[in-house]
């Protein structure tokens, strides 16, 4: 009996010790859990700036990558601007000088003069090609020259086309190298001719694709800007008054102006024709005098011959007249 009591007492002490250990471990775990929670909360509070910095760095990295990707793209840019300025020549010269300063050039230009009565004004355009990095600064410079009426820019991404051309060129060059190797190893004339013909075709394709690639690269490297320049046109004149409603003074002055213009036109015409008339009159007058001098001796000879013939005729007629007159005068004597 006593032994059973001892055994039960030992078991009760063990159970009590076990419960006490479990309670201590639970408190310790709670304390540790609280410490962990505090550590975690503290970690979260301190990690927020870290995560923000990481996000900012990621965004910066993405923007840099996007910028690099955009810089790696082959883009052709063409622009058109319409501006109104006070002086066409000054603006066109300034744009051309800007293009040359930036390493570009003027590819085309045109200017047209308009006239309305006494008013004149110019319109036209100038096309410049500038390096791609100078396209936007050139646009800004042009916009400062006058009033911008319209502005547009078109882009064409030819990156894929350039990549395709480069891949085709690589394949064609490799094929050309193989053909050259086969050409050196050929043993018959027929085989040499066949390889040479194929090699010539491949070389032609390479040159054609290289020309296309150079053209695209040139268009990518230099952007095109067409600037249409317009001077302000004069304001339209007042509506004309019908002719029958015009004042007498205005009609008289208009008529006098027309007479003056007509007279002045005649004088100007006469002045312009005077040298020609003098130049033409000299040979005409000289020719007439020459012909007159040659005809005078002939006229003298003809006059002498005619007078001689007339004198002979008169001498033969006089005796007849005297003979016929004599009987008439003597008839009275005979009668006496």
Automatic annotation (TrEMBL):
Pfam families: DUF4349. Keywords: Coiled coil. Residues 73-285 form the DUF4349 domain. Residues 155-226 form a coiled coil. Residues 46-67 have a biased composition (Low complexity). Residues 25-67, 298-336 are annotated as: Disordered. Residues 25-45, 301-315 have a biased composition (Gly residues). This is DUF4349 domain-containing protein. It comes from Haloarcula vallismortis (Halobacterium vallismortis).
């Amino acid at each position: 009996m006593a032994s059973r009591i001892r055994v039960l007492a030992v078991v009760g002490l063990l159970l009590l010790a076990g419960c006490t250990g479990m309670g201590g471990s639970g408190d310790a775990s709670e304390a540790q859990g609280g410490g962990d929670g505090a550590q975690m909360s503290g970690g979260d509070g301190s990690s927020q700036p870290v995560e923000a910095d990481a996000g900012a760095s990621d965004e910066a990295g993405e923007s840099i990558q996007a910028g690099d990707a955009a810089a790696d793209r082959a883009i052709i840019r063409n622009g058109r601007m319409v501006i109104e300025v006070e002086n066409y020549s000054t603006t066109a010269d300034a744009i051309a000088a800007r293009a040359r300063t930036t390493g570009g050039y003027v590819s085309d230009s045109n200017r047209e003069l308009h006239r309305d009565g006494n008013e004149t004004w110019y319109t036209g355009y100038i096309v410049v090609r500038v390096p791609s990095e100078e396209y936007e600064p050139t646009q800004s410079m042009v916009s400062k020259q006058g009033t911008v009426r319209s502005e547009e820019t078109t882009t064409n991404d030819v990156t894929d086309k350039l990549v395709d051309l480069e891949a085709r060129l690589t394949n064609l060059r490799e094929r050309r190298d193989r053909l050259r190797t086969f050409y050196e190893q050929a043993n018959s004339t027929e085989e040499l001719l066949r390889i040479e013909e194929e090699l010539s075709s491949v070389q032609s394709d390479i040159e054609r694709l290289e020309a296309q690639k150079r053209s695209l690269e040139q268009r990518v490297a230099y952007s095109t800007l067409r600037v249409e320049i317009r001077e302000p046109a004069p304001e339209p004149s007042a509506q004309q008054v019908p002719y029958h409603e015009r004042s007498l003074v205005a009609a008289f002055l208009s008529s006098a102006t027309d007479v003056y213009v007509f007279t002045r036109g005649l004088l100007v015409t006469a002045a312009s024709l005077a040298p020609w008339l003098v130049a033409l009159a000299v040979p005409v007058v000289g020719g007439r005098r020459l012909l007159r001098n040659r005809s005078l001796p002939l006229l003298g000879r003809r006059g002498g011959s005619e007078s001689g013939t007339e004198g002979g005729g008169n001498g033969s007629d006089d005796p007849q007249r005297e003979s016929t007159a004599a009987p008439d005068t003597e008839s009275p004597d005979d009668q006496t």
